[in-house]
TrEMBL record:
Name of the gene this protein is made from: flgI
Pfam family membership, one: FlgI
UniProt xrefs under NCBIfam families: PRK05303.1
Name the UniProt record assigns to this protein: Flagellar P-ring protein
Lineage of origin: Bacteria, Pseudomonadati, Pseudomonadota, Alphaproteobacteria, Hyphomonadales
InterPro entries given in the database record: Flag_FlgI
Superkingdom of origin: Bacteria
Main subcellular localisation: other
Annotated localization: Bacterial flagellum basal body
Record's signal peptide: 1-24
Length: 369
């Protein structure tokens, strides 16, 4: 079998490819979630004050005026019949995540987003806002100065915006007022849910837990669930999980190739294999040149001047057309390294990978974003 020069260059660069074992070591806590132990989403409607003329306008956001009126009335200020048209107030939605086992008085971060026509929340202060969960119960209240990452600079005849100045955050801006009633230590059966379901990984987690405890407590129910039977165990469920969550297990990674066409990024797994295949890669350039010719009648002859089209089409091939036969022992990472060294663009690499996948030469899942 004859090897082409570009393939020899690809294989020569094989030592530059960092090789990892097919199955990487990971802690159990990093690959599973404990069923029932999760965050709860919170949301609330609030008012931001103190803006430097960048708030909502009454014409486009009448609800902002209504909210400010109700707020002032609750504070004992009578504004009935008054026309309030402030430019330093904005209506916002406040969102947060309530961590599991949060206790009263603990602080959580909140995110702020404008829902009116405010141009910026920079310098604003969020007024006391109740945050509710899906059961319509208040679990936290938020208040504080807003941190905005985006900027909005205006000058006479020009304006520049970077990021999103109408969104922001308040670190530790909410206090938990209600706890989620969940007695974890009363569980007799605990389910561990794999974040990426896989038969091999689930079986290895089961074997690792049973070997570490010396008792067959873990059983694989399906590729995404390992069940722990704690009946007859004197140790508390929380203490038991603390003793197994840091155990190392080999995680079986799927053979997958991810191509991001916008950024030109190609990510491939270590288990991607290639069958025997021939590859031809080259660029074709088509050049069309128009050279119109003017045709005029002879002197004293009847006729009209005309412009006659004359086109010239040239087809050339830029670069070298490379054809190579790949053995099964050549990995895709070696092929990518060689193509990268030869200056092949990420878009051309993606086209080559797609063509090899269509030909059945790549044994992996292809994900294109």
């Amino acid at each position: 079998m004859k090897w082409s020069p570009w393939l020899i260059a690809a294989l020569a660069l094989a030592p530059l490819v960092f090789s990892l074992p097919a199955d990487a070591q990971a802690r159990i806590r990093d690959v599973v979630d404990v069923q029932g132990v999760r965050e709860n989403d919170l949301v609330g409607y609030g008012i931001v004050v103190g803006l430097n003329g960048t708030g909502d306008t009454v014409r486009n956001s009448p609800f902002t005026e209504d909210s400010l009126t109700h707020l002032l009335e609750r504070l004992g200020v009578n504004v009935q019949g008054e026309q309030i048209k402030p430019k330093n107030v904005a209506a916002v939605l406040v969102t947060a995540s309530l961590p599991p086992f949060s206790r009263k008085g603990s602080s959580i971060d909140v995110n702020i987003a404008s829902i009116g026509d405010a141009t910026s929340l920079e310098g604003g202060t969020l007024i006391l806002t109740p945050l509710k969960a899906g059961d319509n119960e208040i679990y936290a209240v938020a208040q504080g100065s807003i941190i905005v990452s985006g900027i909005d600079v205006k000058a006479q005849g020009a304006r520049e915006t970077r990021g999103s100045p109408t969104t922001g955050s308040v670190p530790n801006g909410a206090k938990v007022e209600r706890e989620v009633n969940y007695d974890f230590n009363r569980n007799e059966l605990i389910s561990l849910a794999l974040r990426s379901p896989d038969f091999t990984t689930a079986a290895r987690i089961e074997d690792t837990i049973n070997a570490a405890l010396g008792v067959p407590l873990a059983s694989m129910r399906d590729p995404g669930t390992i069940e722990l039977d704690l009946r007859g165990i004197s140790e508390s469920p929380a203490r038991l999980l603390a003793s197994i969550e840091n155990l190392s297990v080999e995680v079986a990674s799927p053979a997958r190739i991810v191509i991001d066409e916008k950024s030109g990024t190609i990510v491939l797994g270590e288990d991607v294999t290639i069958s025997r295949v021939a590859i031809a890669q080259g660029n074709i350039a088509i050049k069309v040149r128009e050279t119109p010719v003017a045709s005029q009648p002879n002197p004293f002859a009847r006729g009209e001047s005309m412009v006659l089209p004359r086109s010239e089409i040239t087809i050339t091939q830029t670069g070298n057309s490379n054809i190579a036969m790949l053995d099964p022992n050549v990995t895709l990472s070696q092929l990518i390294a060689g193509l990268n060294a030869l200056g092949v663009s990420p878009q051309e690499m993606a086209d080559i990978i797609r063509s090899m996948k269509a030909a059945g030469a790549i044994h992996a899942d292809l994900v294109i974003r």
